[in-house]
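worker-03 picked up job from queue 'complexes'. Input manifest follows; two sequence lines, order preserved.
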Amino acid sequence: MKLFWFETYKTFSRWRTYISFGFIALIVILTEVVMKLSANEILYRMMRSFEKDFLIFGNVLNGWFITAFIMNSLHIHIPFLITLVAGDIVSSEATSGTVRFLLTRPPSRSKIITAKYLTTLFYTTGLVIFLALICVSLGLILFGSGDLIMNYQARFRIVFIPETEVPLRMLLAFTAAVWSMTVVASLAFLFSTVAENSIGPIIGTMAVVIVFLVIGNFPFDFFRMLSPYLFTTYMIFWQRFLDDPISWEEIARSATILGLHSIGLFLIAFAAFNRKDIKS
Amino acid sequence: MENLSPEIVLRTKGLSKKFGKRWAVKDLNIEVHRGDVFSFLGPNGAGKSTTIRMILTLLRPTAGSIEIFGKDLQKNRSTVLSRVCGIVEKPDFYLYLSAYENLKILGSMTRSVRRDEIMESLDVVGLKSRVFEKVRTFSHGMKQRLGIAQALLTKPELVILDEPTTGLDPQGMKEVRELIKKLARERQMTIFLSSHLLSEVELVSTRMAVINQGELVTQGAVSELLDREAMEYSMEVSPLEPAVELIRRLSWVELLSSENSCIEVRIEPGRAPELNKILITNDMEVSSFYPHRTLEDFFLKVTKGTSEI
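worker-03 finished. Artifact:
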């Protein structure tokens, strides 16, 4: 617990940790203000595909819809922001030379690497919670509340979620987003453990995420065949909480696969760190 | 019956480390006694840092073992390291934290440290006035002193310093040397320091080991090692001619030169005081008597001139 506190203290004493929070605040505020200013145009584009078939009334362009919209568009940005800390948390100790002090103290390497991993998860969770809070609060202030309409074009589905259910669904969706981001954090953490600088792990993690996302979205049979083996395929399982009915089986499967990825990546990092010769 | 043999604080047995096909350290056996200021001497690339990194568990030995306080390091890592403090190469701190925060975090990894203890250790190294300043504003010498403050804070019994004066200006080197002697004298700490600066070893050490190309060349008390070989001496004696005649009659003294009341001789190990006594008892005035030998001569001899220093 003491080691976890020290790692957290060190992490949150560095200004680079706040870049992510600042970036998220900026992008959410910018997006929501622009959407507010262009509300009529957005509403027209939203409704034109199904206004002939449905009679829709009430506050459609509400804070919940805006939150879901932003969540959908940040699946590249958030992983990048997570790698800024996760990819740096071990390697920066090697770069700065502090690893020599750290590893000659009585706590074992196992305890140190576990404390660092827990700090990485804490930061990841904090970042997603921050995203949730700023999205929802600003969204509700600017756009008000209402039922949530989700248009899943790829599956030709329109889902209506009553206003009373939305907060709980959103809570579950953000929890799932934390779970997904844990895999990205674990991957960056692994790279950080084996690297001697911070740039490599950040670029390496982003390269893996982008390549996997591209492969997973190519409309060719070969790539579709690979898709189930890519963790990025399961990372948007948070959307299932904004579906109707909720596919618990699919959620459980995705959560399990992602969880196993996180555990596996951490165990590799754990073993690598314990066996590592510190030559720097 | 009282045991007179000194307590061995650190012992390596057949310690070896291989990087690829190259042995960085091979079959190293050294012993450090309690209260020693033990210098680990060798040219650059001799294996000093590799040995220290193995002692501090930063590197895994390829073969051999390390005992500290009589306990196997691998099996008792946590217990042993709670009584040890090491600074490898240069003391690197978290630059974005203050001196106080750095000491708090690094010290607390060994044991709970109080604020007054941190302030006291910073006071000893002369950094009390900079306690809340970020370490990024510190000079190299100040970081070196902060490293020693960190060593003081945890009250270790064994302090391991890897080339502690590297990169310091002459004043900084002097301060660190004084601090090392003070730690050994006043706080009864055993100091193990590596260096390639021979003058430094001569000034601070009680015992030493010489390593070259990964292998131990020799170890022992500094004075004993230096006196083991025949040494050259210079002396100013008056009157000169009778003194020269007297010296020529002594089989264990070789006359090298004599002019202007100055005589240079080579004397068998340990017999310099005897020669001095003979000269005085024969009514000669000896105004100076000093050895030529330096640790540098000794070092170059034992490493067979392979040193680059």
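worker-03 released lock.
The first strand of chain A starts at residue 148 and ends at 152.
Strands of chain A lie at 148-152, 157-161.
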